[in-house]
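Problem: given the chain below (408 residues), write out its structure.
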Amino acid sequence: MRGSEVWSWGAGTHGQLASGSDCDAFTPHLVCALSGKDVVQIACGGAHAVAVLGNGEAMTWGRGLSGALGHGNESSWNLPNPVKSLQGIKISSAAAGWNHTAFVTESGGLYTCGDGTFGQLGLGDTKTRFLPCLVEHLTSFFVTMVACGMRHTLALVQGPSEETAVYAFGSNRRGQLGIEIPQQPQTQGTKNVACILKPQSITTLNSKKLVAISANGDHSAALTVTGQLYLWGRGFCNNRDMSIPCAAALGVEICQVSLGWSHGLAISGASLSLSHLCKCLHSSMFLLSQEVFSERFLCLPKVGKLGMRALVVAAGSEHSAAVFENGEVMVWGWAEHGQLGLSTTENQNIPQRVVLESKGIPSDPCSMVGSQTNDGINIQTLIQCGSGFTFLLQIPCSSECTNSSNQG
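Solution.
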Protein backbone atom coordinates (compact mmCIF):
# COMPACT_ATOMS: atom_id res chain seq x y z
CA MET A 1 0.00 0.00 0.00
CA ARG A 2 1.37 3.40 -0.99
CA GLY A 3 -0.22 6.29 0.83
CA SER A 4 -3.59 6.07 2.52
CA GLU A 5 -6.59 4.16 1.24
CA VAL A 6 -10.02 5.73 1.71
CA TRP A 7 -13.37 3.95 1.42
CA SER A 8 -16.87 5.42 1.53
CA TRP A 9 -20.48 4.27 1.43
CA GLY A 10 -23.99 5.51 2.20
CA ALA A 11 -25.82 8.71 1.25
CA GLY A 12 -24.25 10.47 -1.73
CA THR A 13 -26.93 12.83 -3.04
CA HIS A 14 -24.79 15.90 -2.28
CA GLY A 15 -21.49 14.37 -3.38
CA GLN A 16 -20.45 13.59 0.19
CA LEU A 17 -18.93 10.22 -0.77
CA ALA A 18 -16.19 11.97 -2.79
CA SER A 19 -16.75 9.45 -5.59
CA GLY A 20 -17.48 11.88 -8.41
CA SER A 21 -21.13 10.80 -8.26
CA ASP A 22 -24.24 12.09 -6.50
CA CYS A 23 -25.67 8.62 -5.94
CA ASP A 24 -25.98 6.54 -2.79
CA ALA A 25 -23.60 3.61 -2.42
CA PHE A 26 -24.77 0.50 -0.58
CA THR A 27 -21.37 -1.16 -0.38
CA PRO A 28 -17.89 0.27 0.32
CA HIS A 29 -16.06 1.76 -2.66
CA LEU A 30 -12.47 2.90 -2.86
CA VAL A 31 -12.26 6.71 -3.07
CA CYS A 32 -9.80 7.08 -5.92
CA ALA A 33 -9.51 10.86 -5.48
CA LEU A 34 -8.06 10.41 -1.99
CA SER A 35 -6.44 6.98 -2.02
CA GLY A 36 -2.70 7.15 -2.39
CA LYS A 37 -2.59 10.59 -0.78
CA ASP A 38 -1.20 11.14 2.70
CA VAL A 39 -4.61 11.45 4.37
CA VAL A 40 -4.32 11.53 8.16
CA GLN A 41 -7.89 12.40 9.18
CA ILE A 42 -11.41 12.53 7.78
CA ALA A 43 -14.27 14.36 9.50
CA CYS A 44 -17.90 13.85 8.47
CA GLY A 45 -20.80 16.28 8.93
CA GLY A 46 -24.41 16.61 7.85
CA ALA A 47 -23.77 16.13 4.11
CA HIS A 48 -20.15 17.23 3.71
CA ALA A 49 -16.75 16.02 4.80
CA VAL A 50 -13.15 17.15 5.30
CA ALA A 51 -9.83 15.42 4.74
CA VAL A 52 -6.63 16.59 6.42
CA LEU A 53 -3.39 15.61 4.69
CA GLY A 54 -0.01 15.03 6.26
CA ASN A 55 1.37 18.18 4.65
CA GLY A 56 -1.25 20.31 6.43
CA GLU A 57 -3.57 20.70 3.44
CA ALA A 58 -7.35 20.57 3.98
CA MET A 59 -9.75 19.29 1.33
CA THR A 60 -13.56 19.44 1.48
CA TRP A 61 -16.45 18.02 -0.54
CA GLY A 62 -20.18 17.41 -0.38
CA ARG A 63 -22.95 19.92 0.28
CA GLY A 64 -21.73 23.49 0.07
CA LEU A 65 -24.79 25.13 1.61
CA SER A 66 -23.96 28.27 3.65
CA GLY A 67 -20.32 28.00 2.62
CA ALA A 68 -19.66 24.91 4.73
CA LEU A 69 -16.89 23.78 2.34
CA GLY A 70 -14.95 27.02 2.69
CA HIS A 71 -14.58 27.56 -1.05
CA GLY A 72 -16.04 31.06 -1.12
CA ASN A 73 -19.48 30.04 -2.39
CA GLU A 74 -22.32 27.57 -1.82
CA SER A 75 -21.40 25.15 -4.59
CA SER A 76 -21.42 21.46 -3.80
CA TRP A 77 -18.58 19.18 -4.87
CA ASN A 78 -18.62 15.43 -5.43
CA LEU A 79 -14.82 15.27 -5.46
CA PRO A 80 -12.35 16.57 -2.85
CA ASN A 81 -11.35 20.18 -3.45
CA PRO A 82 -8.52 22.00 -1.59
CA VAL A 83 -9.57 24.85 0.69
CA LYS A 84 -7.51 27.43 -1.15
CA SER A 85 -7.81 30.21 1.42
CA LEU A 86 -6.07 27.97 3.96
CA GLN A 87 -3.13 27.14 1.70
CA GLY A 88 0.07 28.15 3.45
CA ILE A 89 -1.57 27.44 6.83
CA LYS A 90 -0.86 23.95 8.12
CA ILE A 91 -4.03 22.24 9.31
CA SER A 92 -3.63 19.49 11.92
CA SER A 93 -7.26 18.40 12.38
CA ALA A 94 -10.84 19.34 11.48
CA ALA A 95 -14.47 18.78 12.45
CA ALA A 96 -17.74 19.08 10.54
CA GLY A 97 -21.20 20.01 11.83
CA TRP A 98 -24.53 20.09 10.04
CA ASN A 99 -23.61 23.04 7.82
CA HIS A 100 -20.41 24.38 9.36
CA THR A 101 -16.77 23.33 9.51
CA ALA A 102 -13.86 23.98 11.86
CA PHE A 103 -10.13 23.67 11.20
CA VAL A 104 -7.36 23.46 13.83
CA THR A 105 -3.96 24.71 12.72
CA GLU A 106 -0.59 23.23 13.57
CA SER A 107 0.17 26.40 15.52
CA GLY A 108 -2.97 26.06 17.66
CA GLY A 109 -5.32 28.42 15.85
CA LEU A 110 -8.97 27.78 14.98
CA TYR A 111 -10.72 28.68 11.71
CA THR A 112 -14.44 28.25 11.04
CA CYS A 113 -16.76 28.65 8.07
CA GLY A 114 -20.33 27.91 7.03
CA ASP A 115 -23.64 28.55 8.74
CA GLY A 116 -23.33 30.95 11.66
CA THR A 117 -27.04 31.40 12.40
CA PHE A 118 -26.65 30.21 15.99
CA GLY A 119 -23.17 31.62 16.61
CA GLN A 120 -21.56 28.23 15.97
CA LEU A 121 -18.65 29.87 14.14
CA GLY A 122 -17.55 31.71 17.30
CA LEU A 123 -17.03 34.98 15.41
CA GLY A 124 -19.28 37.15 17.54
CA ASP A 125 -22.26 37.30 15.19
CA THR A 126 -24.77 35.10 13.36
CA LYS A 127 -23.49 35.68 9.85
CA THR A 128 -22.67 33.01 7.30
CA ARG A 129 -19.02 32.75 6.23
CA PHE A 130 -18.09 31.32 2.83
CA LEU A 131 -14.38 31.31 3.63
CA PRO A 132 -12.68 30.08 6.83
CA CYS A 133 -12.18 32.88 9.36
CA LEU A 134 -9.82 32.92 12.34
CA VAL A 135 -11.63 32.71 15.71
CA GLU A 136 -9.92 35.71 17.24
CA HIS A 137 -11.23 35.09 20.75
CA LEU A 138 -9.08 31.95 21.07
CA THR A 139 -5.81 33.31 19.71
CA SER A 140 -4.32 33.58 23.21
CA PHE A 141 -4.75 29.81 23.64
CA PHE A 142 -3.40 26.76 21.86
CA VAL A 143 -6.35 24.86 20.38
CA THR A 144 -5.65 21.11 20.42
CA MET A 145 -9.02 19.71 19.26
CA VAL A 146 -12.36 20.88 17.90
CA ALA A 147 -15.75 19.15 17.83
CA CYS A 148 -18.88 20.23 15.96
CA GLY A 149 -22.44 19.42 16.91
CA MET A 150 -25.43 20.17 14.75
CA ARG A 151 -25.46 23.87 15.67
CA HIS A 152 -22.71 24.23 18.26
CA THR A 153 -18.94 23.93 18.52
CA LEU A 154 -16.48 22.93 21.25
CA ALA A 155 -12.77 23.76 21.32
CA LEU A 156 -10.31 22.02 23.63
CA VAL A 157 -7.51 24.45 24.43
CA GLN A 158 -4.26 24.43 26.34
CA GLY A 159 -3.08 27.43 28.30
CA PRO A 160 0.49 28.69 28.88
CA SER A 161 0.88 26.45 31.94
CA GLU A 162 -0.45 23.42 30.05
CA GLU A 163 -3.80 23.64 31.82
CA THR A 164 -6.76 22.57 29.70
CA ALA A 165 -10.16 24.14 29.14
CA VAL A 166 -13.15 23.69 26.86
CA TYR A 167 -14.62 26.71 25.10
CA ALA A 168 -18.12 26.43 23.68
CA PHE A 169 -20.21 28.54 21.31
CA GLY A 170 -23.38 28.28 19.24
CA SER A 171 -26.84 27.04 20.14
CA ASN A 172 -27.50 26.21 23.77
CA ARG A 173 -31.17 25.30 23.36
CA ARG A 174 -30.70 21.88 24.99
CA GLY A 175 -27.77 22.78 27.26
CA GLN A 176 -25.21 21.42 24.78
CA LEU A 177 -22.71 24.21 25.51
CA GLY A 178 -22.38 23.21 29.17
CA ILE A 179 -22.99 26.80 30.22
CA GLU A 180 -26.08 28.00 32.05
CA ILE A 181 -27.46 31.12 30.38
CA PRO A 182 -30.95 32.66 30.56
CA GLN A 183 -33.32 31.60 27.80
CA GLN A 184 -34.20 34.42 25.45
CA PRO A 185 -37.90 35.37 25.61
CA GLN A 186 -39.84 34.03 22.66
CA THR A 187 -41.34 36.64 20.36
CA GLN A 188 -43.40 36.30 17.22
CA GLY A 189 -41.33 34.99 14.32
CA THR A 190 -38.16 34.31 16.32
CA LYS A 191 -36.57 31.10 17.60
CA ASN A 192 -36.66 30.51 21.35
CA VAL A 193 -32.98 29.60 21.39
CA ALA A 194 -30.25 30.74 23.75
CA CYS A 195 -27.01 31.23 21.85
CA ILE A 196 -23.42 32.16 22.67
CA LEU A 197 -21.74 33.99 19.79
CA LYS A 198 -18.16 34.04 21.11
CA PRO A 199 -16.22 31.18 22.71
CA GLN A 200 -16.96 30.94 26.42
CA SER A 201 -15.24 28.66 28.90
CA ILE A 202 -17.10 25.74 30.46
CA THR A 203 -15.87 26.60 33.94
CA THR A 204 -16.94 23.33 35.54
CA LEU A 205 -14.34 21.52 33.40
CA ASN A 206 -11.43 23.88 34.00
CA SER A 207 -9.54 21.66 36.46
CA LYS A 208 -10.26 18.29 34.86
CA LYS A 209 -7.12 17.70 32.71
CA LEU A 210 -9.06 16.93 29.55
CA VAL A 211 -7.69 14.96 26.61
CA ALA A 212 -10.66 14.73 24.23
CA ILE A 213 -14.06 16.21 23.38
CA SER A 214 -16.97 15.06 21.24
CA ALA A 215 -20.16 16.72 19.99
CA ASN A 216 -23.08 15.83 17.75
CA GLY A 217 -26.74 16.67 17.56
CA ASP A 218 -27.59 18.65 20.70
CA HIS A 219 -25.26 16.99 23.18
CA SER A 220 -21.58 16.96 24.10
CA ALA A 221 -18.93 14.97 25.95
CA ALA A 222 -15.43 15.38 27.34
CA LEU A 223 -12.84 12.86 28.49
CA THR A 224 -10.17 13.34 31.16
CA VAL A 225 -6.66 11.93 31.26
CA THR A 226 -7.80 9.52 33.98
CA GLY A 227 -10.63 8.12 31.84
CA GLN A 228 -13.52 10.00 33.43
CA LEU A 229 -16.33 10.77 31.00
CA TYR A 230 -18.41 13.96 31.29
CA LEU A 231 -21.74 14.36 29.47
CA TRP A 232 -24.10 17.27 28.97
CA GLY A 233 -26.83 18.57 26.68
CA ARG A 234 -30.01 16.95 25.46
CA GLY A 235 -31.61 14.31 27.64
CA PHE A 236 -33.21 11.22 26.15
CA CYS A 237 -35.91 8.75 27.25
CA ASN A 238 -37.75 11.43 29.23
CA ASN A 239 -34.61 12.51 31.05
CA ARG A 240 -34.13 16.23 31.49
CA ASP A 241 -31.58 18.23 29.53
CA MET A 242 -28.34 18.91 31.39
CA SER A 243 -26.72 22.32 30.98
CA ILE A 244 -23.80 21.49 33.28
CA PRO A 245 -21.33 18.66 32.52
CA CYS A 246 -22.01 15.62 34.67
CA ALA A 247 -19.51 12.84 35.42
CA ALA A 248 -20.80 9.48 34.24
CA ALA A 249 -20.69 6.98 37.12
CA LEU A 250 -19.48 3.96 35.16
CA GLY A 251 -16.92 2.27 37.37
CA VAL A 252 -14.50 1.88 34.45
CA GLU A 253 -12.02 4.12 32.68
CA ILE A 254 -13.02 5.36 29.22
CA CYS A 255 -10.36 5.81 26.53
CA GLN A 256 -12.50 7.00 23.60
CA VAL A 257 -15.94 8.54 23.08
CA SER A 258 -17.95 9.38 19.95
CA LEU A 259 -21.41 10.96 19.89
CA GLY A 260 -24.20 10.61 17.33
CA TRP A 261 -27.45 12.57 17.10
CA SER A 262 -29.19 10.74 19.91
CA HIS A 263 -26.74 8.10 21.05
CA GLY A 264 -23.07 7.64 21.78
CA LEU A 265 -20.29 5.08 21.81
CA ALA A 266 -17.42 4.66 24.22
CA ILE A 267 -14.53 2.26 24.74
CA SER A 268 -13.51 1.33 28.25
CA GLY A 269 -9.78 1.45 28.82
CA ALA A 270 -9.72 -1.47 31.22
CA SER A 271 -11.31 -4.20 29.10
CA LEU A 272 -11.51 -2.35 25.79
CA SER A 273 -15.01 -3.77 25.35
CA LEU A 274 -17.31 -1.74 23.13
CA SER A 275 -19.89 0.21 25.10
CA HIS A 276 -23.10 1.81 23.96
CA LEU A 277 -24.54 4.99 25.46
CA CYS A 278 -28.14 4.32 24.60
CA LYS A 279 -30.81 6.96 24.14
CA CYS A 280 -31.11 7.30 27.93
CA LEU A 281 -27.90 9.30 27.66
CA HIS A 282 -27.69 10.74 31.15
CA SER A 283 -28.71 7.66 33.08
CA SER A 284 -27.27 4.68 31.32
CA MET A 285 -24.46 2.94 29.57
CA PHE A 286 -24.39 -0.64 28.41
CA LEU A 287 -21.55 -2.94 27.38
CA LEU A 288 -22.15 -5.12 24.35
CA SER A 289 -21.01 -8.00 26.53
CA GLN A 290 -24.20 -7.20 28.49
CA GLU A 291 -22.39 -5.92 31.58
CA VAL A 292 -24.63 -3.25 33.11
CA PHE A 293 -23.02 0.04 34.18
CA SER A 294 -26.11 1.47 35.88
CA GLU A 295 -29.53 0.42 37.05
CA ARG A 296 -31.55 1.80 34.16
CA PHE A 297 -30.46 0.70 30.71
CA LEU A 298 -31.62 -0.21 27.23
CA CYS A 299 -31.01 -3.93 26.73
CA LEU A 300 -29.00 -4.57 23.56
CA PRO A 301 -28.41 -7.93 21.85
CA LYS A 302 -25.11 -9.54 22.69
CA VAL A 303 -22.31 -9.21 20.15
CA GLY A 304 -21.32 -12.59 18.78
CA LYS A 305 -17.60 -11.94 19.30
CA LEU A 306 -17.24 -11.69 23.06
CA GLY A 307 -13.72 -11.06 24.25
CA MET A 308 -12.74 -9.23 21.07
CA ARG A 309 -11.45 -5.75 21.80
CA ALA A 310 -12.81 -2.67 20.10
CA LEU A 311 -10.05 -0.25 19.08
CA VAL A 312 -11.95 2.59 17.39
CA VAL A 313 -15.62 3.62 17.48
CA ALA A 314 -17.63 6.14 15.46
CA ALA A 315 -21.21 7.34 15.89
CA GLY A 316 -23.15 8.85 12.97
CA SER A 317 -26.54 10.49 12.98
CA GLU A 318 -28.37 7.20 13.50
CA HIS A 319 -25.81 4.50 12.82
CA SER A 320 -22.63 3.26 14.46
CA ALA A 321 -19.35 1.56 13.57
CA ALA A 322 -16.36 0.03 15.29
CA VAL A 323 -12.96 -1.35 14.33
CA PHE A 324 -11.96 -4.45 16.30
CA GLU A 325 -8.57 -5.89 17.19
CA ASN A 326 -8.69 -8.51 14.43
CA GLY A 327 -9.18 -5.74 11.85
CA GLU A 328 -12.87 -6.35 11.30
CA VAL A 329 -15.21 -3.39 10.90
CA MET A 330 -18.65 -3.84 12.44
CA VAL A 331 -21.67 -1.60 11.76
CA TRP A 332 -25.23 -1.34 13.06
CA GLY A 333 -28.22 1.01 13.20
CA TRP A 334 -30.19 2.84 10.51
CA ALA A 335 -29.50 1.71 6.93
CA GLU A 336 -31.88 3.61 4.63
CA HIS A 337 -29.10 5.15 2.53
CA GLY A 338 -26.71 2.20 2.62
CA GLN A 339 -24.62 3.77 5.38
CA LEU A 340 -23.95 0.33 6.88
CA GLY A 341 -22.25 -0.84 3.68
CA LEU A 342 -24.07 -4.19 3.76
CA SER A 343 -25.71 -3.90 0.30
CA THR A 344 -29.12 -3.58 1.95
CA THR A 345 -31.33 -0.88 3.45
CA GLU A 346 -32.41 -3.15 6.30
CA ASN A 347 -31.72 -1.69 9.74
CA GLN A 348 -29.45 -3.73 11.98
CA ASN A 349 -29.81 -4.07 15.75
CA ILE A 350 -26.79 -6.35 16.03
CA PRO A 351 -23.33 -5.33 14.74
CA GLN A 352 -22.59 -6.77 11.31
CA ARG A 353 -19.25 -7.23 9.54
CA VAL A 354 -18.41 -4.97 6.58
CA VAL A 355 -16.31 -6.32 3.70
CA LEU A 356 -14.28 -3.93 1.57
CA GLU A 357 -15.10 -5.38 -1.86
CA SER A 358 -12.79 -8.33 -2.51
CA LYS A 359 -9.88 -7.03 -0.47
CA GLY A 360 -11.26 -7.49 3.00
CA ILE A 361 -9.58 -5.67 5.87
CA PRO A 362 -6.03 -6.36 7.11
CA SER A 363 -5.72 -8.53 10.19
CA ASP A 364 -3.36 -8.95 13.17
CA PRO A 365 -3.08 -5.91 15.45
CA CYS A 366 0.12 -3.92 15.87
CA SER A 367 -1.22 -1.28 18.27
CA MET A 368 -4.20 0.08 20.14
CA VAL A 369 -5.33 2.50 17.43
CA GLY A 370 -6.79 0.05 14.96
CA SER A 371 -3.44 -0.73 13.31
CA GLN A 372 -2.94 -4.07 11.68
CA THR A 373 -0.22 -5.89 9.83
CA ASN A 374 -0.78 -7.22 6.31
CA ASP A 375 2.19 -8.69 4.40
CA GLY A 376 4.61 -6.83 6.63
CA ILE A 377 2.89 -3.44 6.25
CA ASN A 378 1.45 -1.83 9.36
CA ILE A 379 -1.99 -0.37 8.74
CA GLN A 380 -3.88 2.04 10.99
CA THR A 381 -7.62 1.69 10.41
CA LEU A 382 -9.88 4.62 11.38
CA ILE A 383 -13.59 5.12 10.75
CA GLN A 384 -15.90 8.14 10.71
CA CYS A 385 -19.69 8.37 10.39
CA GLY A 386 -21.68 11.34 9.10
CA SER A 387 -25.40 11.83 8.65
CA GLY A 388 -26.22 8.71 6.64
CA PHE A 389 -22.73 8.04 5.25
CA THR A 390 -19.48 6.43 6.38
CA PHE A 391 -15.76 6.81 5.62
CA LEU A 392 -13.02 4.32 6.43
CA LEU A 393 -9.37 5.37 6.35
CA GLN A 394 -6.41 3.00 6.23
CA ILE A 395 -3.05 4.63 6.90
CA PRO A 396 0.33 2.92 6.46
CA CYS A 397 2.40 3.47 9.57
CA SER A 398 5.78 2.54 10.97
CA SER A 399 6.34 -0.35 13.35
CA GLU A 400 6.50 2.25 16.13
CA CYS A 401 2.71 2.80 16.00
CA THR A 402 1.73 4.42 19.28
CA ASN A 403 -1.07 3.49 21.61
CA SER A 404 -2.97 6.75 21.22
CA SER A 405 -6.70 6.47 20.49
CA ASN A 406 -8.53 8.08 17.64
CA GLN A 407 -10.73 10.73 19.24
CA GLY A 408 -11.75 12.55 16.10
